[in-house]
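#onboarding

Welcome to the new folks! Below is a worked example of what a typical request in this channel looks like: someone posts a single protein sequence, and someone else replies with the predicted structure as tokens. Don't worry about understanding the tokens yet, we'll cover that in week two.

Example request:
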Amino acid sequence: MAEFVKDVMTPGVVAVRPGASLVEAAQLMRTQNIGDVVVADGQEVVGVLTDRDITVRAVADGADPMSVSVGSVCTPDPLTLAPDDRVSTAVAAMRERAVRRIPVVENGLPVGMVSLGDLAEAQDPGSALADISRAEPDD
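Example response:
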């Protein structure tokens, strides 16, 4: 069983600046086939934006996604993990904070993302969540 976050995380990060529009972020998510992006100001992680954030915090309120910035909708000051943190730390943090994704940061730079699905695949590969996480997305 994997012991460290670096062993289960999805390496690489798709990032967007806080001033980007929600449309820019949504297009990036579509292009990369992902449901979240790290919000970074220079080299610092300042937030996480999910497709749900766009829908629930902006579009559902009638906001114009062309004029609303990522920084105004994202979850600010996200919890982060280091690659050498233990998987058990990630599990406990997700449970305590009720989050499904945590950016992985090394020397101040985002290097990956660990998700609930990543943890399911590593700790319970036969689970339904692990199966869903491994499935190829429909376009």
